[in-house]
């Protein structure tokens, strides 16, 4: 496992030196750089705080490649130790329920919390703008309470932001442990497993390397 990520930093350096490096989405933020890896003690402390061992591929990445930085979207959320507590930082990193990462994410197939919701109110159906506004506010309050309920994120580790509040996550606990999923709830798309070209679920390693492969033509 120690050598599994040995090629990553040289590949990132090659991409950073390419003429079109700045044209790759998100690269202006992460600049093709990885932060230092975690030490064995830091990783042990992190997992003790979370109460769960992280999936193997991501765990080895943290230990031998880096604790965050260059990666899909705007980059991998980096780990920070703040006042003795390890946490991920980034736009949407706070959606990770650290205290619930050891609880099993129950799903193995795509699901959408927005299923069953009717369309929002139509202003033409109301006698006044005030009545329409009241009905619309009530609709979206009910919608958001269901769609963005924190229990959907149990067992999920948010790793990156793709823009427009679309994010990708690693399943830490449950039957899909080790798989990468998309959180498309901002588009009312729900949650879905990310699949490789042959339809098999993507693990962290293949997910990260697919991003590297896609960025390679910029070199």
Q: Can you put this structure into words, describing what you see?
A:
The chain starts with 7 loop residues before the first helix and ends with a helix. It has a single domain (8-113, 148-218), classed as SMI1/KNR4-like (3-Layer(aba) Sandwich), CATH 3.40.1580. The protein has helices at residues 8-16, 27-30, 40-50, 56-64, 129-147, 204-215, and strands spanning 79-82, 85-88, 156-163, 166-171, 180-183, 191-193. 31% of the residues are buried. It is built from 6 helices and 6 strands, in the order H-H-H-H-E-E-H-E-E-E-E-H. The radius of gyration is 20 Å and the shape is globular. With 219 residues, the protein is of the alpha+beta class.
The assembly state of the depicted protein chains is single chain
Number of helices: 6
Give the spatial strand order of the biggest sheet. Answer: 3-4-5-6
Specify the helix fraction band.
25-40%
**How many whole angstroms does the radius of gyration measure?**
20 Å
Shape, per Cα inertia axes: globular
CATH topology: SMI1/KNR4-like
Pattern of helices and strands: HHHHEEHEEEEH
**How many structural domains are formed by the residues?**
1
| Largest sheet report | 4 strands, antiparallel
């Amino acid at each position: 496992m120690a050598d599994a990520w040995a090629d990553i930093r040289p590949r990132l350096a090659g991409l950073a030196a390419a003429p079109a490096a700045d044209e790759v989405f998100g690269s202006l933020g992460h600049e093709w750089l990885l932060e230092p890896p975690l030490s064995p003690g830091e990783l042990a402390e992190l997992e003790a705080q979370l109460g769960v061992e992280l999936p193997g591929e991501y765990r080895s990445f943290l230990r031998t490649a880096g604790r965050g930085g260059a990666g899909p979207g705007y980059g991998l959320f980096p780990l920070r130790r703040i006042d003795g507590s390890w946490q991920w930082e980034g736009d949407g990193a706070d959606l990770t329920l650290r205290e619930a990462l050891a609880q099993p994410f129950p799903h193995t197939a795509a699901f959408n919390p927005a299923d069953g919701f009717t369309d929002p109110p139509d202003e033409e159906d109301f006698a006044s703008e005030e009545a329409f506004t009241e009905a619309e506010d009530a609709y979206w309050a009910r919608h958001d309470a269901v769609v963005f309920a924190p229990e959907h994120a149990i067992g999920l580790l948010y790793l990156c932001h793709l823009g427009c509040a679309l994010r990708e996550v690693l399943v830490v606990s449950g039957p899909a442990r080790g798989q990468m999923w998309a959180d498309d709830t901002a588009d009312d798309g729900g949650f879905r497993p990310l699949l490789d070209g042959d339809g098999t679920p993507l693990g962290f390693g293949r997910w990260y390397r697919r991003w590297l492969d896609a960025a390679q033509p910029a070199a």
